[in-house]
Write a structure and sequence with these properties.
The complex is a heterodimer of chains A (503) and B (507). With 503 residues, chain A is an alpha+beta fold. Chain A folds into 3 domains: 269 residues, no CATH class; 112 residues, no CATH class; 59 residues, Arc Repressor Mutant, subunit A (Orthogonal Bundle). In chain A, 39% of the residues lie in helices and 18% in strands. A 9-stranded mixed sheet of chain A has the order 2-5-6-9-1-10-11-12-13. In chain A, strands 4-3-14 form a 3-stranded antiparallel sheet, with no helix packed on it. In chain A, α2 crosses α5, α3 runs antiparallel to α4 and α13 crosses α16. By secondary structure, chain B is α/β, with parallel strands linked by helices. Chain B has a single domain, classed as Amidase signature (AS) enzymes, CATH 3.90.1300. In chain B, strands 1-3-2-4-6-5-10-11-9-7-8 form an 11-stranded mixed sheet, with helices on both faces. The longest helix of chain B is centred in the last third of the chain and has 24 residues. Classes of the chains: A alpha+beta (503), B alpha/beta (507). Chains A and B meet through loops of A and α11 and α12 of B.
């Protein structure tokens, strides 16, 4: 059943949106948060078979004990510092007790009242140039749960499923949960702010090199809290928490949707149910999950199996000194370095392609070439398919594609065909070109023969060229390219045409 | 030196190990003698839940390694019994619970791995109160263990199986675990020796957790030296247990040998804990304790009285902290990944979890899970768990103050001799109070030892408890060995040799 929605501008006229975000970041350490089992969020272990990255702790076997991953602690401190947070001198882990089959111990080791990092802020620049400061309440360390697959039933949810499968590979993956304070004053920019905030966290995490931060893989997950209050009211409205939002585009859409949905209910005199809601990418709507109240009792208590984490001030300062630049500063620097126009740069930022262009440049491509690929052909395909550009192709492959053009191996057109193959998972650009037989004909005699044939077929054009109307050569070049089925370097063909015409 | 097989089982562990090391007795012979003894008497005692079918093979492998000239550990080839709370590859590990019936872990507890590495041969797994909740081993899902001194009586708990196995000469060495007295109290009522090490002194990895902040694994034997030998093998830092201490420990074996040889307690200041010497302690236990204090004084110890007023709250605090931690530790027994599953067609996962836990846990376990869940609930946490943690701090301070006046504290190890099976089973509070003397050490994390100090009016063993400051386990072994030697002189041998023979053993 589709919920009734209010027009967005109308909703903003009547209500003030209040936002809050919980972003979970999977750390890409080699081992899990509390055991030596391999971490599926580490590049080396992607795509492992279910229940192969496990050990006694991942399964919660009797007698197993947690041991804190020191690299994960360092990553968490770095992330806290990059968020402008203070770092605790001593903080304990706590047990969050609840029964769920994806939670092997039926408690999650998390942090409760003693987070590793607290009170920070993230600076955000919106497309309209508006500067925004998102206040961070805390960033705490915890372990991920396993993954449930519900089989049978229609919803893919646990209710109504015939049976469920559990994969404990993810159980124990190190997480940092970043919690914002309530965010006021976003107004019409609320949906865009949501997207920009998640993008900023993603950029920070990437610049720190602590996670691959791929939303589609669940490395970065956002729960968006939205509530509305009538204009002029001091009292906060009831919030909903939208989960399962696994792309930046979805974060923006989900916040917009919740504002419109809640506004319609409130305007009709209804009340908002405090609950978690699930975002559905396909329908662009949220649906109710379980009711969530502030009275949920997780029976937190300090984890007796672990000692408190007590980062030395020397370590904190060492990590602070090693911090990369802030995303806003980085943007300014990259714009200057790449020499993009305002419009070109904004295009990249709006398309959420800054990190992709950066990675492509780092892999050897010229900035303008990198930009053209991402905001051009790749963005077009992404839009067409309704997916994130990042999920289509690796930056390194884009750089390779450009290199093949620069080296004269592929023409622009052939390169687009190669890209199509890369996006279809056929391999690297060079592999695709090889497999599909894509390459520029560099057999000069074949080209010369084709040019002579084309000139002979169009004597009027030949005459025009000879009369000095060089632009007329286009028709001949087109005929040659067609004869060569596009597998020729158009610039070289042009040279040959002019040469043969004058000869 | 020729030994009849039946005599091998009566030797203290260190003597048996010496014979094996010298090649006078093979590990196979020693192991077979104990397996025979188990076959003869365990029908009466029920100390074992599982007897290791591979024991002789492992013994043979040790004999072969020795024959090939390999240098082996001093205890290599000696048999040992393992409390069922510990995970063992190839042997079921049930923690005395129906919910883990038949569960065979894929990994060894660190203490078990260390015993194996030293070449000790596991005889099997010993009975215990379910998940170590109890003081009598009556709460085992597999039936009670009986006290070898009187099979109508309890052997203490939770580690009644290990204590009874050692007291009945079914094993020279055993491992126990002590959360509130589960090593020391069974030792007291069976006339054996048991040690709860300093918290963090011995790894908990692979010990099925009851209350993580209180649990400690330790030795159960017939002599102080034997406990020291085992403690030296199992102790020391383990990277798999974050609460395991990173420190160098002295040789407890050396401490025990020194203590046994010295025969004197001159220069030792011994504190009698006023609060553990009167209320609720049976008259005959008090009498033996007074006599023991006199023996200590005669041996040169300076005995002073110390007061630990916060001990009055220790049982109450303990029965909040333990259930709270246990309620969380036992949450993993949900039938999803291992253990008993009770299910019917069409049930939800929550239904199956609930039904499995309902069927798999005994009443005492359920009682404590409910208590603990309540104590941790929002709105009650501060009043219960929070207050209990404060009591813990007060008890630690009491100990700190007491250890400024004394090197060692002493008390009875249990308030009475062994009570009859069934006597207290329906009265949880009476059962809980049994641990009044042993609980403070767990709450403070300090080491403690239970050892025999004579017989009560009913002819049953009475135990003495020694307590040392944090990290000073060696002090227990030194003084314990001296006291043991002084008392044994008076009795004409260690106490366990005075136990009446069992029907099966006489045959």
């Amino acid at each position: 059943m589709k919920a009734k929605l209010m027009d967005f501008d109308k909703a903003l006229e009547l209500f003030e949106p209040v936002l809050g975000f919980e972003v979970h970041v999977e750390l890409g350490t080699k081992t899990k948060m509390f055991s030596a089992a391999p971490n599926p969020a580490h590049p080396e272990f992607h795509g492992a078979e279910p229940n192969t990255l496990i050990d006694p702790l991942s399964l919660g076997l009797p007698g197993s004990l947690p041991v804190t991953n020191e690299t994960a602690v360092r990553y968490s401190i770095s992330l806290g510092l990059a968020l402008g947070c203070e770092i605790a001198t001593s903080c304990r882990f706590a047990r969050k007790n609840y029964f769920y089959p994806d939670t092997p111990k039926n408690y999650q080791i998390s942090q409760y009242d003693e987070p590793i990092a607290f009170e920070g802020q993230v600076e955000i620049e919106l497309a309209n140039g508006r500067q925004f400061t998102v206040p961070i309440e805390r960033a705490h360390m915890e372990e991920d749960a396993g993954k449930l697959t519900h089989v049978g039933g229609s919803t893919g949810r646990i209710q109504g499923a015939e049976y469920s499968l559990v994969d404990y590979n993810r159980a124990g993956v190190p997480l940092v949960e970043i919690v914002t304070h309530m965010i006021f004053g976003a107004e019409h920019d609320a949906p865009e702010l949501a997207k920009a905030y998640v993008g900023a966290i993603r950029d920070i995490v990437l610049s720190l090199g602590i996670s691959e931060a791929r939303m589609e893989r669940g490395n970065l997950r956002c729960d968006a809290n939205v509530s509305l209050r009538p204009r002029g009211s001091e009292r906060l409205g009831t919030r909903t928490e939208t989960k399962n939002v696994n792309s930046m585009r979805s974060v923006e859409r989900a916040v917009r949707y919740e504002i419109q949905r809640q506004a319609a209910i409130l305007a009709d005199g209804g009340t908002i149910t405090q609950e978690t809601r699930h975002w559905h990418e396909d329908t662009g709507a949220t649906s109710p999950g379980r009711p969530k109240s502030d009275a949920d009792d997780y029976r937190y208590f300090p984890e007796p199996d672990l000692l408190p984490v007590e980062p030395s001030r020397a370590l904190v300062e060492e990590l602070r000194a090693a911090l990369p630049e802030q995303p806003v500063a980085r943007k300014r620097r990259l714009k200057a370095e790449w020499g993009f126009s305002d419009l070109e740069f904004q295009d990249v930022v709006n398309g959420d392609m800054l990190h992709l262009v950066d990675a492509t440049v780092a892999a050897g491509a010229a900035p303008q070439s990198a930009r053209k690929w991402w905001t051009g052909e790749i963005a077009r395909v992404a839009n067409e398919r309704g997916v994130e550009a990042a999920s289509l192709v690796e930056p390194a492959h884009v750089a390779e594609l450009q290199r093949l053009i620069d080296e004269g191996v592929l023409t622009d057109r052939l390169a687009r065909q190669a890209l199509e193959g890369v996006m279809a998972g056929e391999g690297s650009p060079a592999e695709v070109a090889e497999a599909r037989g894509l390459k520029v004909v560099i057999d000069e005699s074949a080209l010369v023969a084709a040019v002579d044939e084309a000139l002979a077929a169009q004597p009027d054009v030949l005459q025009k060229i000879r009369d000095g109307k060089v632009q007329a050569a286009g028709a001949v070049i087109g005929a040659v390219m067609k004869a060569m089925r596009g597998q020729a370097d158009a610039a070289r063909v042009r040279e040959i045409v002019l040469e043969r015409a004058s000869g | 030196m020729e030994q009849a097989p039946s005599e091998l089982t009566r030797l203290p562990g260190h003597e048996l190990a010496t014979l094996i090391a010298a090649g006078d007795v093979s590990s196979v012979e020693a192991t077979q003698a104990h397996l025979d003894r188990i076959a003869a008497v365990d029908g009466e005692i029920h100390a074992f839940l599982h007897v290791n079918g591979g024991a002789l093979e492992q013994a043979k492998a040790i004999d072969e390694r020795r024959a090939s000239g390999e240098q082996l550990h001093a205890l290599a080839g000696a048999p040992v019994a393992i409390k069922d709370v510990l995970c063992t590859i190839g042997m079921p590990s049930t923690s005395g619970s129906r919910i883990l019936e038949g569960w065979v872990p894929p990994y060894d507890a660190t203490v078990v791995a260390r015993l194996k590495a030293a070449g000790l041969v596991a005889l099997g797994k010993t009975n215990m109160d379910e998940f170590a909740m109890g003081s009598s081993t009556e709460h085992s899902a597999y039936g009670p263990t009986r006290n070898p001194w009187d099979t109508e009586r309890i052997p203490g708990g939770s580690g009644g199986g290990s204590a009874a196995a050692v007291a009945a000469f079914e094993a020279p060495f055993a491992l126990g675990s002590d959360t509130g007295g589960s090593i020391r109290q069974p030792a007291a009522v069976t006339g054996t020796v048991g040690v709860k090490p300093t918290y963090g002194g011995v790894s908990r990895y692979g010990a099925i957790a009851l209350a993580s902040s209180l649990d400690q694994v330790g030795p159960v034997t017939r002599t102080v030296l034997d406990s020291a030998l085992i403690h030296d093998v199992i102790g020391g830092h383990d990277p798999h247990d974050s609460t395991s201490l990173k420190r160098e420990w002295p040789s407890f074996t050396a401490a025990a040998r020194e203590g046994a040889a010295s025969g004197s307690l001159a220069g030792l200041k011994v504190g009698v804990v006023k609060e553990l010497d009167s209320e609720g302690i049976a008259a005959d236990v008090q009498a033996r304790f007074k006599e023991t204090v006199q023996v200590l004084t005669d041996a040169g110890a300076e005995v002073v009285e110390v007061s630990c007023p916060s001990f009055a709250y220790s049982v109450a605090a303990y029965y909040l902290i333990l259930p709270a931690e246990a309620s969380s530790n036992l949450a993993r027994f949900d039938s999803v990944r291992f253990g008993l599953r009770v299910e019917q067609q069409g049930q939800t996962v929550e239904d199956v979890m609930a039904a499995s836990r309902e069927a798999g846990f005994g009443p005492e376990v359920k009682r404590r899970i409910i208590l603990g869940t309540y104590a941790l609930s929002a709105g009650y946490y501060d009043a219960y768990y929070g207050s209990a943690q404060k009591v813990r701090t007060l008890i630690q301070r009491d100990f700190d103050a007491a250890f400024e006046q004394a090197d060692l504290l002493i008390s009875p190890a249990a308030p009475t001799t062994a009570f009859k099976i069934g006597e207290k089973i329906d009265d949880p509070l009476a059962m809980y109070v049994n641990d009044i003397t042993t609980i403070p050490a767990n709450l403070a994390g300090i080491p403690g030892m239970g050892l025999p100090m004579g017989l009560g009016d009913d002819g049953l063993p009475v135990g003495l408890q020694l307590l040392a400051p944090m990290f000073e386990d060696a002090r227990l072994y030194r003084a314990g060995a001296t006291i043991e030697a002084l008392l044994a002189d008076g009795w004409g041998g260690i106490l366990t040799t005075k136990a009446p023979e069992l029907a099966g053993g006489a045959a």
